[in-house]
Amino acid sequence: MAFSAVSAPARQNTSRPRGLTRVGLLTSGGDCPGLNSVIRGAVLKGIAYHQQNYVGFRDGWRGVVEGDIVDLTRAGVNGIARQGGTVLGTSRTNPFAGGGGVEQVADTLARLGIDAVIAIGGEGTLAAALKLSAHGIHIVGVPKTIDNDLGGTDYTFGFATAVEIATEAMDRLRTTGDSHSRCMIAEVMGRHAGWIALHAGIAASADAILIPERRTSLETICRWVSEAQTQGTAPLVVVAEGFVPDHADDPHSERGLDSFGRQRLGGIGEQLAPMIEEVTGIETRATTLGHIQRGGVPSAYDRVLATRLGTAAADLVARRGWGRMVALQGVEVVDVDLRAALAELKTVPGHLYDEAAMLFGGPGITAIA
Ligand code: F6P
C-alpha cells in the first residue's frame, strides 16, 4: 500500500530539530473509513500547536518492528481526510510475535529518534499499546473499529459509514426480495457485538435482527419470517457474522485463524438460508456484505469524529498521557485509561435490542423472551 500523498520516504531519517517532539503514527488491524482523517487531524494540530513533527509507520506494527517509516508533513496530508482506507497501510502483525516485542520496539524508536507513538487501532492494537506503555514506551491510542465494540468510547469512527453501506444494501435486497417474494438475508460484520446489524436493521425496517448478544432459535426466526410474509412483505433478515443460533455452540467459522489467533468469521447467512427455506417454505437467499462495509469514503459524520480524535491525540501526546486513549463521550472528546477501556467489550445492551425487536415479529410474536 503506497503512501502517495506525502514527500519521499524517509526510511532512516533520525534527524529531530531541537525542542521538537517526534511522533510516530500507525494504523493497525482491519482498516476502517476515517483512518486518514485521524492522521490528518493529528499532523495538522501537532505541527501547528505542539511543536511536534510526524512520521508514519508503514503497515501497522510491521513498520514499528522493522523501522519502516515515511515523513508526514502538513502539505502531505492535504486532501486525505476524504479518502477511504489508510494511506499508511495496515496489517494484522502482532508486535509480540515473531522476533518483535518490547525491546525490539524500544530499539527501533530510539534508532529513529521517535519520542512518542500514536496507535490507531482496535482491541488487538490497543492491547499491544497498553502492554508497550506498561514497559515505558511513550504511547497513546485512538480507538478504531467498524464494529463499534470498544469500551470507553460511545462510538468509533467507521461505524456510521458501515451502517450507511449496510442500510443501502438492505434497501436494495428489499426491492429484489419484493419482486420475487423471497426472504432475503443480509450478513453484516460484527464479531462480538451486533451494533451494525442493530442499526442497519432498524434503519432498513428488517423483519428479524440477529446479533451475537442474543441467542435465538431457528423456530423463532422462522416465525418472524413467516409473520412478515403474512403481513404482505418479503421478509428481510439481518444477521451479524458473530450470531450463534440456539442449535450451535460457536459462531460460524470455516476459514481458520488470523495472526492474533482469532477465528475468521463469515457464512452464517448462507448457513441459515436453507434452514429458513425448509421450515417456512419461503424461497430464501443470503448475501454477505463482508469488506464492502469497510471500503470506500468515510461519511461526513465519521470524518468529523475521526478528525476530532486525531487532534485530541496530538493534544494527549503534548500532555504526555501515555497509556491513555482518546474517546467520544456524549458530544465531548475526552481521554481514558487504556486498561479501563479494554476491560470489557461494548456489546449491545438487552434493552436496546428489545426496543428494536418490538418492531418485528408481529403482535404477540415479539422477539422479547
Ligand atoms: O474487527 C473488525 C472486523 O471488521 C470484524 O467484524 C471482522 O470479523 C474482521 O474485521 C475481518 O477482518 P479481516 O478479514 O480483514 O481480517
From TrEMBL:
Task: List the keywords (alphabetical).
Answer: ATP-binding, Cytoplasm, Glycolysis, Kinase, Magnesium, Metal-binding, Nucleotide-binding, Transferase
| Keyword ATP-binding attributed | yes
**GO MF annotations for this entry?**
6-phosphofructokinase activity
- Which residues hold substrate? 145-147, 182, 189-191, 241, 285, 291-294
Please list the residues that bind ATP. 30, 92-93, 122-125
Compartments where located? Cytoplasm
Keyword Magnesium listed? The answer is yes
Give the originating organism.
Mycolicibacterium komossense
Name of this protein: ATP-dependent 6-phosphofructokinase
Q: Which InterPro entries match?
A: ATP_PFK (IPR022953), ATP_PFK_prok-type (IPR012003), Phosphofructokinase_CS (IPR015912), Phosphofructokinase_dom (IPR000023), Phosphofructokinase_III (IPR012829), PKF_sf (IPR035966)
**Where does the protein principally reside?**
cytoplasm
- A Pfam family in this protein? PFK
